[in-house]
Amino acid sequence: MHLMINSAMHIAASEGKLEICKYLVAKGANINRSDRWGGSPLDDAHRHRHALVVSYLRDLGAKTGSTNNKANLISAAAEGDLEEVQSLLSFGNVNINDGDYDKRTAMHVAAGEGHTAVVKFLCESGANVNAQDRWGGRPLDDAERSKNVECSKVLKQYGAVLGT
Prior knowledge:
Layout: H1 8-15, H2 18-26, H3 41-47, H4 51-59, H5 69-79, H6 82-90, H7 106-113, H8 116-124, H9 139-145, H10 149-157
Helix pairs in contact: 1-2, 1-3, 3-4, 5-6, 5-7, 7-8, 7-9, 8-10, 9-10
């Protein structure tokens, strides 16, 4: 894993390079990628007063970032965005086992949504496969309830058991 401080999209947005932003989007760049501080390319364009880039990114549905990397991690896991999960964890300022207000972790939501690659990465990264949410549910419960067979297999390989 590498430490990504800013993506190419962040830099282009920060510098007001509209044509480069368009090129990056055409090549599949994620317009909502978080940097190590939780900021988005839209935040960078706005901070440096690049109105055309701000308008362009907003038209594409870009969002402002969040400095809450725990929330960013859980959201990325829910969306199956493996690259974002990897980036957020590589920064070292988010606990892989932190949960939301219901104590649901990135592992819970990735398993429930069937994002096997994210579940496998979280397992390999030391996430607690038996973390319990506020109702006693575990990631394996979410995978089984949603009939995500591959996620269930991966979780069981790492010692996951059903909750209460």
